[in-house]
Structure formats: C-alpha cells, structure tokens
Write a structure and sequence with these properties.
- The radius of gyration is 19 Å and the shape is elongated.
- The protein folds into 2 domains: 85 residues, Immunoglobulin-like (Sandwich), CATH 2.60.40; 41 residues.
- With 136 residues, it is an alpha+beta fold.
Length: 136
C-alpha cells in the first residue's frame, strides 16, 4: 500500500494547535507540532493540503506508486517565527524606552509592516499561510 508521510516542523507559532491533513479533499487526520504521521493511500495521483482554521497550504500534487512512501514537510509561512519574535522585541523595546526615557510611541510605526504582513496571511493570502513541500 502507498503511504504519505508528513513531518510537521516544530515552531512557536501555532504550537498548541493541530494541522488538519486532507488527501483528495478528504480529511485523513491531524498532526501536532513537531510530529510525523503516516497516511495510507492508494497508488496514483493525489492532492494533499494542510489546514488550520480558515487558513491552509497551497495544494500539492503527488504521484505515488504501490508500496512507495512519499515524504512531505508542513510548517508556517517563511519567516513567520522571526516576524513574531521581531514584533515582540519591538513591543518590549517600546515599553522600556517609554518607562526609562519617557520616549513617545513614535516607534509604533515599526510594528505596522509586521502587522500588515500577518494581516495579509490571514486574509488575502490565507491559502499560503502554511507551506507544504515534498522532501526526499
């Protein structure tokens, strides 16, 4: 029997939430943060998608033979973890500058691009929120 083996990267963002895995638009299971799961399937062409709430990965098409295992990796969009850490760092810096030096909140403008990027990924780019790729 053909098998699709999916590895989820271990990430800070969405770590408490499971991704739902769909093969040919049929729900086949969930995958936790940092976990690897195998999903048995039939030989032939299949479309695989990962979803979390209303966001998802782009569909990936694979051709799998009998007794073959295809390996896929799923995770957040590129640089998601870095953007979260950068945003938190800016917020902490703002509070420190305000408390110590009486700085105004003019640095809030540095948060706007980060906010807009996340807003894009949960609205217009919601089908690109997760990445799903074939690995060897």
């Amino acid at each position: 029997m053909a098998t699709i083996k999916i590895k989820r990267t271990s990430e800070l963002v969405n770590m408490a939430r499971n991704y739902r895995i769909f093969i040919d638009k049929q729900f086949v299971g969930k995958i936790a943060n940092g976990a690897t799961k195998e999903f048995p399937t039939t030989a032939g062409y299949h479309t695989v998608t990962a979803k979390i709430d209303w966001c998802s990965s782009p569909n990936i098409s694979i051709n799998i033979n009998t007794n073959e295992t295809k390996y896929l990796t799923v995770g957040n969009f590129k640089y998601c973890s870095w953007l979260v850490l950068l945003g938190l760092g800016i917020v902490v810096l703002l509070f420190m500058l305000k408390g110590i030096f009486g700085f105004s909140y003019a640095l809030n403008f540095f948060l706007i691009p980060i906010f807009l990027l996340f807003f894009y990924y949960i609205t217009i780019g919601r089908k690109k929120y997760l990445t799903l790729s074939e690995t060897k």
